Amino acid sequence: MKRIFGLIICALILIGSLACYGIADNNNRTHKQIIFISDTQIPLWYEEIFTKTHRNEEATEILLNSILKDTLTSAVFFLGDVTAMSSIDSKWKLIDPFLASLNLKNIPAYAVMGNHDYLLSGKKGENNFRKRFPSYVRTGYVVYIERCAIMMLNSNFNELSVDEIEAQEAWYKKEMNRLDNETTVSMIIVACHHSPYSNSSIVGGSKKVRKVFVETFRKSRKAKLFLSGHAHTFQHFKDAMYDKHFLVIGGGGGLLHKLNGEECEGMKDLTGWGTNYRMFHYLKCIILQNELIINVMMLTENLEGPYLKYKLRIPFSTE
Prior knowledge:
Layout: H1 2-20, E1 32-37, H2 47-50, H3 56-69, E2 73-79, H4 95-104, E3 109-112, H5 122-132, E4 141-145, E5 148-152, H6 162-180, E6 187-194, H7 207-219, E7 223-229, E8 234-239, E9 244-249, E10 263-264, E11 267-268, E12 281-287, E13 291-298, E14 307-315
C-alpha cells in the first residue's frame, strides 16, 4: 500500500512539473513558443542547373517533422516561397499534410507570399494561399501572440498595384504607431519575404523593402526584430544605432546560396560563419515575461538534427 501511495505522489509531482513547463496544452502554456520558417519550396529543374543541390526536399521534410514533434509549438509562420509554384495544386504535396497535422493539434499557421507563390498565375496562387491561410491579407496584417505583435507584410511590389502599395504603406505606418502605444504589446516583429539586407550571391538585399518598410521599423520604439527570407541562407545583421536586429531565415529547403563577403550596407553579419552555405533551418522563438529568445534550429551537412546552432535574446521595450 505504501508503495502504491508513493507511486501516486510521484505521478502527481510529474504532472505538476509538466504543467509548470507548459507541456500540457497548446492554448494554456506558461510561455508561448512560435516557429518561423521560410523558402520551403522544392527546387525547380532549371534552378538546379545553376545551383548545387543538398537533398533539399528531404531537408524540408525533416524540418517540418521536427516542428510537428515539438509539443511546445503555439503557432507557425511561413515567410514566403511556401511552394515552388503555389498556383499548381501538386506543388503543395509537402505543405498540405503538414498544415493538416497542425490543424489537428489546434496550432494556427500564418504566411506571407513570396515570388514563387505568384509564379504562372498570381491569382490562382493567391487563391490557393487563402484556402490554406485564411488570415492572409494581400496588403498586410497583424498576428498577436502573447505580448508580441507580428506584422506580416507583402514585399512583392511588382505584384501589387500602385494603390495597393500606397495603401499597405499607409496602413503599416498607422498600425506601427498604434502598436507602439498599445499597452498590451511589448515587442513588434516585422516580417516579409524579401530581405532588406543580404549579400546572397544569388539575390542580395531589396532596396525597395529598405525604403518602404525599414524606415518605419527603425522609428518604432517596440519594433526590435525584422525577419525575412528570399536569400536561402541564415544571416544576422544589427543596426547598432537604432538597436534593431535583421535576420535572414531563407533556409527552409530551397537551393542554398553562398555569400559575397560578410558585410551588407555597412553592417557585418554577426554569425561570423564566412561565405559558404548555411544549412537548412527554422527559428524557434520563445516569448518570456521580459524578452524574446530566438533559437536557430539548423541541420548538419548530413541532414542530422536540427540542432541549436545560434541563439539570440532580445529584451522587450520598457517604454
